[in-house]
Amino acid sequence: MRKEQTRYSRLAQITKLINTKLELREVLEHVITAISEEIVQCDSVGIYLPEENGDFRGYVGKPEIINGMTLDMHFIDMEYDLLAKEVMETKKTIYIPDTSNDTRPDPRAVSSFQIKSLLGLPITYEDELFGLVFLFDYGIPMDLKDEEIQTVEAYVNMAGVAIRNATNLSRKENLLAEKQVLLDFTRELSMCSTMNEALDKCFSYVGDVLNNYNVGVHLLDPQAEKKIQPANLSKDSDWTEEDWLATHSKAQFDTLNDGVFKEVIRTKKRLLIPNVFEDDRPNHEVCKTFGIKGMFMMPLIAMGEVLGALAVPEFEENELSFKEADMQLAQSLADATASTLSNLLYMEKQEVIIEERTSEIRIKNNELERVVAELGNLSRERELILNSAGDGLFGLDLEGKITFCNPASESMLGYEAGELIGKSSDVIFGKKKAPISETAYFEPNQQFFKKDHSSFSVEYVISSIKDGNHILGEVVSFKDISERKQLEEEIKYLAYYDSLTDLPNRVLLNDRLNQELVAAKYKSKKMAIMYLDLDRFKLINDSLGHSYGDILLRESAGRLRASVPDEAIVSRQGGDEFTIVLPNVKSKKDVLTVLEDVMDAFAKPYSLKGNEVYIKTSIGISMYPQDGDTAETLIKNADAAMYRSKEKSGTYYHFFESDMSNRNLESIKLENALYKALDNDELVIYYQPQIDSKTNQLIGAEALLRWMHPTEGMISPVDFIPVAEETGLIIPIGKWVLKNACRQLKEWHAAGHTSLSISVNLSGRQFEEDNLVSMVRDIIKEYEITPENLHIELTENQLIRNTGVTIEKMKQLKKLGVKIAIDDFGTGYSSLGYLKNFPIDALKIDRSFVQDIEHDSDNAAITDTIITLAQNLKLNVIAEGVETQEQLDFLMSKDCYIMQGFFFSRPIEAKDLANKYLYSNSNTLH
Question: What pTM was estimated for this model as a whole?
Answer without folding.
Answer: 0.39
